[in-house]
Amino acid sequence: MSNMINSQQLFRRSRLRLACWYTIAMAGVLSLFGLGMYRALVQSKWIALEREIESLAGTLHDSLEPMLPASGDPTLVLRQIFPDLCLVGYPCNSSPTLIQRHTTGISDRHTYYIRLFDRDGNLLAFSPNQPLAPETTLNPATWQTFQASDGTRYHQFITILHGTNAEQGIGSSHNYTSWGYIQIGRTLAAFDAETRRIQWILAIGFPVALALVAAAGWWLSGLAMQPIYQSYQQQQQFTANVAHELRSPLASLLATVEAILRLPPNLHQNIPPMLQTVERQGRRLSSLITDLLLLTSLEQESSTKTLQPCCLNDLVSDLTEEFLELAIASGIDLTNQVPGFEVYVFGNESQLYRLVSNLLANAIQYTGAGGSVEVSLKCHDRMAILRVKDNGIGIAPVEQKRIFERFYRVHSDRSRKTGGTGLGLAIAQAITRRHRGHITVKSKVGQGSLFLIHLPCIQPHPLRMTHSVNTQTR
Ligand code: ADP
Hints:
The chain has helices spanning about 1-65, 75-80, 95-100, 190-260, 270-300, 310-330, 350-365, 395-400, 410-415, 425-435, and strands at about 85, 110-120, 125, 145, 155-165, 175-185, 310, 335-340, 345, 370-380, 385-390, 440-445, 450-460, 470. By secondary structure, the chain is of the alpha+beta class.
Protein backbone atom coordinates (compact mmCIF):
# COMPACT_ATOMS: atom_id res chain seq x y z
CA MET A 1 0.00 0.00 0.00
CA SER A 2 2.77 2.42 0.99
CA ASN A 3 4.50 1.40 -2.22
CA MET A 4 1.36 2.42 -4.14
CA ILE A 5 1.31 5.79 -2.38
CA ASN A 6 4.99 6.28 -3.05
CA SER A 7 4.59 5.49 -6.72
CA GLN A 8 1.59 7.81 -6.96
CA GLN A 9 3.60 10.55 -5.30
CA LEU A 10 6.45 9.85 -7.66
CA PHE A 11 4.19 10.14 -10.70
CA ARG A 12 2.57 13.29 -9.32
CA ARG A 13 5.97 14.83 -8.69
CA SER A 14 7.17 13.87 -12.18
CA ARG A 15 4.02 15.33 -13.67
CA LEU A 16 4.53 18.54 -11.72
CA ARG A 17 8.17 18.72 -12.75
CA LEU A 18 7.26 18.14 -16.39
CA ALA A 19 4.58 20.86 -16.23
CA CYS A 20 7.06 23.24 -14.57
CA TRP A 21 9.75 22.66 -17.18
CA TYR A 22 7.20 23.10 -19.90
CA THR A 23 6.04 26.37 -18.36
CA ILE A 24 9.62 27.60 -17.94
CA ALA A 25 10.46 26.73 -21.53
CA MET A 26 7.29 28.39 -22.78
CA ALA A 27 7.95 31.43 -20.58
CA GLY A 28 11.34 31.76 -22.26
CA VAL A 29 9.83 31.45 -25.71
CA LEU A 30 6.97 33.82 -24.90
CA SER A 31 9.21 36.46 -23.34
CA LEU A 32 11.63 36.32 -26.26
CA PHE A 33 8.75 36.58 -28.67
CA GLY A 34 7.06 39.35 -26.66
CA LEU A 35 10.28 41.35 -26.33
CA GLY A 36 10.98 40.94 -30.04
CA MET A 37 7.48 42.11 -30.93
CA TYR A 38 7.72 45.01 -28.49
CA ARG A 39 11.07 46.14 -29.84
CA ALA A 40 9.92 45.85 -33.45
CA LEU A 41 6.77 47.83 -32.73
CA VAL A 42 8.51 50.60 -30.80
CA GLN A 43 11.30 50.76 -33.35
CA SER A 44 8.92 51.11 -36.28
CA LYS A 45 6.96 53.85 -34.47
CA TRP A 46 10.22 55.62 -33.64
CA ILE A 47 11.41 55.46 -37.23
CA ALA A 48 8.07 56.81 -38.48
CA LEU A 49 8.29 59.61 -35.93
CA GLU A 50 11.82 60.60 -36.99
CA ARG A 51 10.84 60.47 -40.62
CA GLU A 52 7.93 62.80 -39.93
CA ILE A 53 10.20 65.28 -38.13
CA GLU A 54 12.76 65.10 -40.93
CA SER A 55 10.24 65.69 -43.66
CA LEU A 56 8.73 68.62 -41.76
CA ALA A 57 12.21 70.06 -41.28
CA GLY A 58 12.89 69.64 -44.98
CA THR A 59 9.68 71.39 -45.97
CA LEU A 60 10.32 74.29 -43.61
CA HIS A 61 13.92 74.59 -44.71
CA ASP A 62 12.95 74.71 -48.36
CA SER A 63 10.29 77.33 -47.84
CA LEU A 64 12.42 79.54 -45.58
CA GLU A 65 15.67 79.42 -47.48
CA PRO A 66 14.87 81.94 -50.27
CA MET A 67 13.52 84.48 -47.81
CA LEU A 68 16.44 84.66 -45.41
CA PRO A 69 18.48 87.88 -45.29
CA ALA A 70 21.98 87.66 -46.66
CA SER A 71 23.61 89.63 -43.85
CA GLY A 72 23.01 92.14 -41.05
CA ASP A 73 20.61 91.97 -38.14
CA PRO A 74 18.01 89.41 -39.02
CA THR A 75 15.51 90.54 -36.35
CA LEU A 76 13.41 92.69 -38.61
CA VAL A 77 13.44 90.24 -41.46
CA LEU A 78 12.63 87.42 -39.13
CA ARG A 79 9.70 89.37 -37.75
CA GLN A 80 8.42 89.80 -41.28
CA ILE A 81 8.93 86.20 -42.27
CA PHE A 82 7.88 84.66 -38.97
CA PRO A 83 5.19 86.88 -37.50
CA ASP A 84 4.06 83.88 -35.47
CA LEU A 85 7.45 83.15 -33.86
CA CYS A 86 8.66 84.75 -30.69
CA LEU A 87 11.90 86.66 -31.15
CA VAL A 88 14.44 86.53 -28.38
CA GLY A 89 14.30 89.79 -26.41
CA TYR A 90 10.85 90.79 -27.69
CA PRO A 91 7.37 90.14 -26.26
CA CYS A 92 5.81 86.97 -27.61
CA ASN A 93 2.83 86.73 -29.91
CA SER A 94 1.38 83.25 -29.44
CA SER A 95 -0.44 82.35 -32.64
CA PRO A 96 1.62 79.60 -34.27
CA THR A 97 0.32 79.98 -37.78
CA LEU A 98 3.60 78.97 -39.43
CA ILE A 99 3.61 75.67 -37.63
CA GLN A 100 -0.07 75.34 -38.40
CA ARG A 101 0.62 75.86 -42.07
CA HIS A 102 3.29 73.22 -42.20
CA THR A 103 1.66 70.68 -40.00
CA THR A 104 -1.73 70.70 -41.70
CA GLY A 105 -3.00 67.19 -41.55
CA ILE A 106 -1.06 66.33 -38.44
CA SER A 107 -3.62 65.79 -35.77
CA ASP A 108 -2.04 67.68 -32.92
CA ARG A 109 -0.83 71.10 -33.96
CA HIS A 110 0.81 71.63 -30.62
CA THR A 111 2.96 68.62 -31.11
CA TYR A 112 5.72 70.40 -32.99
CA TYR A 113 7.85 73.35 -32.08
CA ILE A 114 10.47 75.23 -34.08
CA ARG A 115 13.58 77.21 -33.09
CA LEU A 116 15.99 79.24 -35.14
CA PHE A 117 19.63 79.77 -34.26
CA ASP A 118 22.20 81.94 -35.93
CA ARG A 119 25.37 80.39 -37.28
CA ASP A 120 27.10 80.93 -33.88
CA GLY A 121 24.42 78.94 -32.20
CA ASN A 122 22.54 81.78 -30.50
CA LEU A 123 18.80 81.42 -30.31
CA LEU A 124 17.04 83.93 -32.56
CA ALA A 125 13.43 82.84 -32.61
CA PHE A 126 11.20 80.08 -31.26
CA SER A 127 7.62 79.02 -31.53
CA PRO A 128 5.52 79.76 -28.45
CA ASN A 129 4.73 76.11 -27.75
CA GLN A 130 8.36 75.09 -27.26
CA PRO A 131 9.16 72.99 -24.21
CA LEU A 132 9.59 74.63 -20.84
CA ALA A 133 13.08 75.81 -19.92
CA PRO A 134 14.76 75.15 -23.28
CA GLU A 135 18.47 75.79 -23.79
CA THR A 136 19.27 79.08 -25.40
CA THR A 137 22.48 77.94 -27.02
CA LEU A 138 22.70 75.33 -29.69
CA ASN A 139 23.49 71.70 -29.00
CA PRO A 140 25.03 70.56 -32.30
CA ALA A 141 23.88 66.87 -32.16
CA THR A 142 21.54 66.19 -35.09
CA TRP A 143 19.07 64.19 -33.02
CA GLN A 144 18.40 64.86 -29.38
CA THR A 145 15.97 63.49 -26.88
CA PHE A 146 15.46 65.24 -23.57
CA GLN A 147 13.03 65.49 -20.76
CA ALA A 148 11.50 68.83 -19.83
CA SER A 149 11.00 69.90 -16.23
CA ASP A 150 7.33 68.82 -16.37
CA GLY A 151 8.40 65.27 -17.21
CA THR A 152 7.38 65.33 -20.89
CA ARG A 153 9.98 63.96 -23.26
CA TYR A 154 10.89 65.71 -26.50
CA HIS A 155 12.75 64.64 -29.56
CA GLN A 156 14.34 67.21 -31.82
CA PHE A 157 16.22 67.45 -35.04
CA ILE A 158 18.68 70.11 -36.20
CA THR A 159 19.48 70.99 -39.76
CA ILE A 160 21.69 73.69 -41.20
CA LEU A 161 19.80 76.56 -42.72
CA HIS A 162 21.43 77.85 -45.85
CA GLY A 163 21.07 81.41 -47.00
CA THR A 164 21.38 82.81 -50.50
CA ASN A 165 24.50 84.89 -50.55
CA ALA A 166 24.29 86.99 -53.67
CA GLU A 167 27.46 88.92 -52.88
CA GLN A 168 29.58 85.83 -53.12
CA GLY A 169 27.77 84.57 -56.16
CA ILE A 170 30.28 85.68 -58.80
CA GLY A 171 29.92 83.56 -61.85
CA SER A 172 27.07 81.59 -60.42
CA SER A 173 23.51 82.59 -59.84
CA HIS A 174 23.27 80.76 -56.43
CA ASN A 175 25.97 80.23 -53.89
CA TYR A 176 24.87 78.71 -50.57
CA THR A 177 26.45 79.33 -47.19
CA SER A 178 25.35 78.42 -43.72
CA TRP A 179 23.00 81.04 -42.39
CA GLY A 180 22.15 79.34 -39.13
CA TYR A 181 20.24 76.37 -37.83
CA ILE A 182 16.65 75.37 -37.73
CA GLN A 183 15.56 72.99 -35.00
CA ILE A 184 12.31 71.06 -35.25
CA GLY A 185 11.17 69.15 -32.22
CA ARG A 186 8.14 67.38 -31.03
CA THR A 187 6.69 66.11 -27.83
CA LEU A 188 6.99 62.37 -27.22
CA ALA A 189 3.87 62.34 -25.02
CA ALA A 190 1.79 60.36 -27.55
CA PHE A 191 4.68 58.06 -28.35
CA ASP A 192 5.40 57.41 -24.67
CA ALA A 193 1.70 56.85 -23.94
CA GLU A 194 1.55 54.31 -26.76
CA THR A 195 4.72 52.59 -25.52
CA ARG A 196 3.31 52.45 -22.00
CA ARG A 197 0.09 51.00 -23.35
CA ILE A 198 2.05 48.22 -25.09
CA GLN A 199 4.05 47.67 -21.91
CA TRP A 200 0.84 47.34 -19.94
CA ILE A 201 -0.61 44.90 -22.45
CA LEU A 202 2.57 42.82 -22.18
CA ALA A 203 2.73 43.09 -18.41
CA ILE A 204 -0.85 41.84 -18.05
CA GLY A 205 -0.83 39.50 -21.05
CA PHE A 206 2.38 37.72 -20.12
CA PRO A 207 1.29 36.38 -16.70
CA VAL A 208 -2.13 35.48 -18.12
CA ALA A 209 -0.52 33.61 -21.02
CA LEU A 210 1.87 31.96 -18.58
CA ALA A 211 -0.97 30.85 -16.35
CA LEU A 212 -2.73 29.34 -19.37
CA VAL A 213 0.53 27.67 -20.44
CA ALA A 214 0.99 26.27 -16.92
CA ALA A 215 -2.55 24.86 -16.95
CA ALA A 216 -2.01 23.39 -20.42
CA GLY A 217 1.36 22.01 -19.26
CA TRP A 218 -0.25 20.32 -16.27
CA TRP A 219 -2.93 18.80 -18.49
CA LEU A 220 -0.47 17.71 -21.19
CA SER A 221 1.97 16.20 -18.74
CA GLY A 222 -0.96 14.30 -17.24
CA LEU A 223 -1.70 12.93 -20.71
CA ALA A 224 1.97 12.04 -21.22
CA MET A 225 2.20 10.31 -17.85
CA GLN A 226 -0.96 8.28 -18.34
CA PRO A 227 0.46 5.48 -20.52
CA ILE A 228 3.59 5.33 -18.37
CA TYR A 229 1.48 5.10 -15.24
CA GLN A 230 -0.70 2.41 -16.77
CA SER A 231 2.28 0.40 -17.89
CA TYR A 232 3.85 0.84 -14.45
CA GLN A 233 0.66 -0.44 -12.82
CA GLN A 234 0.55 -3.39 -15.22
CA GLN A 235 4.14 -4.15 -14.37
CA GLN A 236 3.32 -4.02 -10.66
CA GLN A 237 0.35 -6.28 -11.19
CA PHE A 238 2.49 -8.65 -13.25
CA THR A 239 5.15 -8.86 -10.54
CA ALA A 240 2.49 -9.57 -7.94
CA ASN A 241 0.97 -12.26 -10.18
CA VAL A 242 4.34 -13.87 -10.82
CA ALA A 243 5.07 -13.97 -7.10
CA HIS A 244 1.65 -15.49 -6.46
CA GLU A 245 2.06 -18.09 -9.21
CA LEU A 246 5.51 -19.09 -8.01
CA ARG A 247 4.53 -19.25 -4.36
CA SER A 248 1.99 -22.12 -4.52
CA PRO A 249 4.10 -24.67 -6.46
CA LEU A 250 7.16 -23.72 -4.41
CA ALA A 251 5.27 -24.12 -1.14
CA SER A 252 3.94 -27.53 -2.13
CA LEU A 253 7.37 -28.56 -3.41
CA LEU A 254 8.96 -27.61 -0.10
CA ALA A 255 6.21 -29.38 1.83
CA THR A 256 6.84 -32.57 -0.16
CA VAL A 257 10.60 -32.35 0.38
CA GLU A 258 10.05 -31.80 4.11
CA ALA A 259 7.73 -34.79 4.24
CA ILE A 260 10.37 -36.93 2.48
CA LEU A 261 13.03 -35.80 4.94
CA ARG A 262 10.83 -36.66 7.94
CA LEU A 263 9.83 -40.02 6.56
CA PRO A 264 10.76 -42.81 9.01
CA PRO A 265 13.14 -45.42 7.58
CA ASN A 266 10.42 -48.08 7.47
CA LEU A 267 8.41 -45.95 4.98
CA HIS A 268 11.28 -45.24 2.59
CA GLN A 269 9.52 -47.25 -0.10
CA ASN A 270 7.15 -44.22 -0.44
CA ILE A 271 9.99 -41.93 -1.46
CA PRO A 272 9.98 -42.56 -5.26
CA PRO A 273 6.32 -41.50 -5.79
CA MET A 274 6.89 -38.47 -3.58
CA LEU A 275 9.97 -37.56 -5.59
CA GLN A 276 7.83 -37.81 -8.70
CA THR A 277 5.56 -35.15 -7.20
CA VAL A 278 8.62 -33.02 -6.49
CA GLU A 279 9.74 -33.49 -10.07
CA ARG A 280 6.29 -32.55 -11.41
CA GLN A 281 6.20 -29.43 -9.31
CA GLY A 282 9.76 -28.60 -10.28
CA ARG A 283 8.89 -28.97 -13.94
CA ARG A 284 5.83 -26.79 -13.55
CA LEU A 285 7.94 -24.10 -11.93
CA SER A 286 10.56 -24.44 -14.60
CA SER A 287 8.02 -24.17 -17.43
CA LEU A 288 6.43 -21.16 -15.74
CA ILE A 289 9.80 -19.41 -15.56
CA THR A 290 10.58 -20.36 -19.17
CA ASP A 291 7.23 -18.89 -20.24
CA LEU A 292 7.90 -15.71 -18.31
CA LEU A 293 11.34 -15.34 -19.84
CA LEU A 294 9.89 -15.95 -23.29
CA LEU A 295 7.23 -13.29 -22.73
CA THR A 296 9.81 -10.80 -21.54
CA SER A 297 12.13 -11.50 -24.44
CA LEU A 298 9.22 -11.23 -26.89
CA GLU A 299 8.36 -7.82 -25.55
CA GLN A 300 11.92 -6.58 -25.54
CA GLU A 301 12.98 -7.99 -28.87
CA SER A 302 12.46 -5.53 -31.65
CA SER A 303 15.05 -6.48 -34.26
CA THR A 304 13.95 -8.58 -37.19
CA LYS A 305 17.42 -10.08 -37.63
CA THR A 306 16.48 -13.56 -36.44
CA LEU A 307 13.49 -13.78 -38.78
CA GLN A 308 13.60 -16.17 -41.72
CA PRO A 309 11.05 -17.54 -44.18
CA CYS A 310 8.98 -20.25 -42.50
CA CYS A 311 6.62 -22.58 -44.29
CA LEU A 312 3.28 -22.60 -42.52
CA ASN A 313 2.08 -25.71 -44.40
CA ASP A 314 4.89 -27.71 -42.74
CA LEU A 315 4.13 -26.12 -39.41
CA VAL A 316 0.45 -27.11 -39.53
CA SER A 317 1.20 -30.69 -40.64
CA ASP A 318 3.97 -31.15 -38.05
CA LEU A 319 1.86 -29.88 -35.19
CA THR A 320 -1.17 -31.93 -36.18
CA GLU A 321 1.05 -34.96 -36.11
CA GLU A 322 2.53 -33.96 -32.78
CA PHE A 323 -0.86 -33.45 -31.11
CA LEU A 324 -2.38 -36.52 -32.67
CA GLU A 325 -1.57 -38.76 -29.74
CA LEU A 326 -2.99 -36.29 -27.21
CA ALA A 327 -6.11 -35.83 -29.34
CA ILE A 328 -6.65 -39.58 -29.64
CA ALA A 329 -6.12 -39.97 -25.90
CA SER A 330 -8.74 -37.27 -25.27
CA GLY A 331 -11.17 -38.76 -27.79
CA ILE A 332 -10.99 -35.75 -30.09
CA ASP A 333 -11.11 -35.69 -33.85
CA LEU A 334 -8.11 -33.58 -34.95
CA THR A 335 -8.02 -32.53 -38.61
CA ASN A 336 -6.06 -30.07 -40.63
CA GLN A 337 -6.53 -28.26 -43.89
CA VAL A 338 -3.72 -26.64 -45.86
CA PRO A 339 -3.83 -25.05 -49.34
CA GLY A 340 -2.25 -26.60 -52.41
CA PHE A 341 0.52 -24.02 -52.45
CA GLU A 342 3.09 -23.21 -49.87
CA VAL A 343 2.45 -20.28 -47.61
CA TYR A 344 5.56 -18.62 -46.21
CA VAL A 345 5.87 -15.97 -43.58
CA PHE A 346 8.93 -14.16 -42.29
CA GLY A 347 9.34 -15.30 -38.76
CA ASN A 348 10.99 -17.16 -35.99
CA GLU A 349 10.11 -20.79 -36.59
CA SER A 350 10.21 -21.99 -33.00
CA GLN A 351 8.04 -19.06 -31.91
CA LEU A 352 5.51 -19.80 -34.66
CA TYR A 353 5.41 -23.45 -33.56
CA ARG A 354 4.86 -22.27 -30.01
CA LEU A 355 2.03 -19.99 -31.13
CA VAL A 356 0.03 -22.67 -32.91
CA SER A 357 0.82 -25.38 -30.36
CA ASN A 358 -0.53 -23.17 -27.56
CA LEU A 359 -3.81 -22.78 -29.45
CA LEU A 360 -3.98 -26.46 -30.29
CA ALA A 361 -3.26 -27.50 -26.70
CA ASN A 362 -6.03 -25.19 -25.48
CA ALA A 363 -8.48 -26.42 -28.13
CA ILE A 364 -7.88 -30.03 -27.12
CA GLN A 365 -7.90 -29.19 -23.42
CA TYR A 366 -11.18 -27.26 -23.52
CA THR A 367 -13.03 -29.70 -25.77
CA GLY A 368 -14.73 -32.74 -24.34
CA ALA A 369 -14.36 -36.28 -25.67
CA GLY A 370 -16.18 -36.78 -28.98
CA GLY A 371 -15.50 -33.20 -30.00
CA SER A 372 -13.46 -32.03 -32.94
CA VAL A 373 -10.58 -29.66 -33.49
CA GLU A 374 -9.58 -28.32 -36.88
CA VAL A 375 -6.46 -26.41 -37.89
CA SER A 376 -6.55 -24.76 -41.25
CA LEU A 377 -4.32 -22.52 -43.29
CA LYS A 378 -5.30 -20.05 -46.00
CA CYS A 379 -3.66 -17.20 -47.81
CA HIS A 380 -5.76 -14.20 -48.69
CA ASP A 381 -4.75 -10.70 -49.69
CA ARG A 382 -1.07 -11.15 -48.76
CA MET A 383 -2.15 -12.42 -45.36
CA ALA A 384 -1.70 -15.94 -44.07
CA ILE A 385 -4.76 -16.96 -42.07
CA LEU A 386 -4.39 -19.69 -39.50
CA ARG A 387 -7.59 -20.98 -37.91
CA VAL A 388 -7.83 -23.22 -34.87
CA LYS A 389 -11.44 -24.24 -34.41
CA ASP A 390 -12.99 -26.49 -31.79
CA ASN A 391 -16.49 -27.35 -30.68
CA GLY A 392 -15.64 -27.38 -27.01
CA ILE A 393 -16.88 -25.47 -23.98
CA GLY A 394 -16.54 -22.02 -25.58
CA ILE A 395 -15.77 -18.70 -23.91
CA ALA A 396 -18.29 -16.15 -22.64
CA PRO A 397 -18.10 -12.69 -24.32
CA VAL A 398 -16.90 -10.96 -21.12
CA GLU A 399 -14.08 -13.46 -20.79
CA GLN A 400 -13.10 -13.13 -24.45
CA LYS A 401 -11.78 -9.65 -23.75
CA ARG A 402 -9.56 -10.87 -20.95
CA ILE A 403 -8.21 -14.26 -21.99
CA PHE A 404 -5.16 -12.69 -23.66
CA GLU A 405 -4.09 -11.07 -20.39
CA ARG A 406 -1.17 -12.64 -18.58
CA PHE A 407 -2.21 -15.17 -15.93
CA TYR A 408 -5.89 -14.80 -16.77
CA ARG A 409 -7.81 -18.06 -16.57
CA VAL A 410 -11.53 -18.44 -17.02
CA HIS A 411 -11.93 -21.30 -14.59
CA SER A 412 -8.77 -20.75 -12.66
CA ASP A 413 -9.07 -23.81 -10.43
CA ARG A 414 -9.79 -26.12 -13.27
CA SER A 415 -7.13 -24.82 -15.58
CA ARG A 416 -4.51 -24.79 -12.82
CA LYS A 417 -5.23 -28.46 -12.21
CA THR A 418 -4.72 -29.15 -15.88
CA GLY A 419 -1.35 -27.43 -15.70
CA GLY A 420 -2.37 -24.14 -17.31
CA THR A 421 -0.53 -21.07 -16.17
CA GLY A 422 -2.74 -18.52 -17.88
CA LEU A 423 0.24 -17.40 -19.99
CA GLY A 424 -0.52 -19.49 -23.10
CA LEU A 425 -2.66 -16.94 -24.93
CA ALA A 426 -0.56 -14.00 -23.71
CA ILE A 427 2.45 -15.67 -25.30
CA ALA A 428 0.43 -16.42 -28.46
CA GLN A 429 -0.56 -12.77 -28.72
CA ALA A 430 2.99 -11.55 -28.08
CA ILE A 431 4.35 -13.85 -30.81
CA THR A 432 1.67 -12.73 -33.29
CA ARG A 433 2.41 -9.08 -32.59
CA ARG A 434 6.11 -9.67 -32.97
CA HIS A 435 5.33 -11.08 -36.42
CA ARG A 436 3.29 -7.96 -37.27
CA GLY A 437 0.05 -9.94 -37.19
CA HIS A 438 -2.99 -10.11 -34.98
CA ILE A 439 -4.97 -12.75 -33.20
CA THR A 440 -8.72 -12.73 -32.58
CA VAL A 441 -11.24 -15.05 -31.01
CA LYS A 442 -14.84 -15.87 -31.82
CA SER A 443 -16.63 -18.09 -29.43
CA LYS A 444 -20.00 -19.12 -28.02
CA VAL A 445 -20.41 -20.82 -24.71
CA GLY A 446 -21.21 -24.50 -25.25
CA GLN A 447 -20.65 -24.34 -29.01
CA GLY A 448 -16.91 -23.93 -29.34
CA SER A 449 -14.23 -21.40 -30.14
CA LEU A 450 -12.42 -20.17 -33.20
CA PHE A 451 -8.99 -18.55 -32.90
CA LEU A 452 -7.91 -16.65 -36.00
CA ILE A 453 -4.34 -15.55 -36.65
CA HIS A 454 -3.48 -13.15 -39.43
CA LEU A 455 0.17 -12.89 -40.41
CA PRO A 456 1.66 -10.97 -43.34
CA CYS A 457 2.95 -13.58 -45.78
CA ILE A 458 5.55 -13.70 -48.50
CA GLN A 459 4.21 -14.24 -52.06
CA PRO A 460 2.85 -17.83 -52.28
CA HIS A 461 5.39 -20.30 -53.61
CA PRO A 462 4.92 -22.45 -56.74
CA LEU A 463 2.74 -25.48 -56.33
CA ARG A 464 4.15 -28.27 -54.29
CA MET A 465 0.87 -30.06 -53.64
CA THR A 466 -1.84 -29.70 -56.18
CA HIS A 467 -4.85 -30.14 -53.98
CA SER A 468 -6.13 -29.26 -50.60
CA VAL A 469 -5.09 -31.74 -47.93
CA ASN A 470 -7.42 -33.03 -45.29
CA THR A 471 -5.71 -35.14 -42.70
CA GLN A 472 -8.16 -37.30 -40.84
CA THR A 473 -6.73 -38.41 -37.55
CA ARG A 474 -9.35 -40.72 -36.33
P1 ADP B 1 -4.22 -21.62 -19.70
O1 ADP B 1 -2.82 -21.92 -19.41
O2 ADP B 1 -5.05 -21.52 -18.49
O3 ADP B 1 -4.81 -22.43 -20.78
P2 ADP B 1 -4.39 -19.56 -21.65
O4 ADP B 1 -3.80 -18.19 -21.66
O5 ADP B 1 -3.91 -20.46 -22.69
O6 ADP B 1 -4.16 -20.13 -20.20
O7 ADP B 1 -5.93 -19.42 -21.74
C1 ADP B 1 -6.62 -18.52 -20.92
C2 ADP B 1 -8.04 -18.95 -20.68
O8 ADP B 1 -8.75 -18.93 -21.89
C3 ADP B 1 -8.10 -20.37 -20.19
O9 ADP B 1 -8.13 -20.40 -18.78
C4 ADP B 1 -9.39 -20.90 -20.77
O10 ADP B 1 -10.43 -20.76 -19.84
C5 ADP B 1 -9.69 -19.99 -21.94
N1 ADP B 1 -9.49 -20.70 -23.24
C6 ADP B 1 -8.43 -20.70 -24.01
N2 ADP B 1 -8.61 -21.41 -25.13
C7 ADP B 1 -9.86 -21.92 -25.06
C8 ADP B 1 -10.67 -22.75 -25.90
N3 ADP B 1 -10.20 -23.20 -27.07
N4 ADP B 1 -11.91 -23.05 -25.48
C9 ADP B 1 -12.37 -22.55 -24.33
N5 ADP B 1 -11.69 -21.79 -23.48
C10 ADP B 1 -10.44 -21.45 -23.84
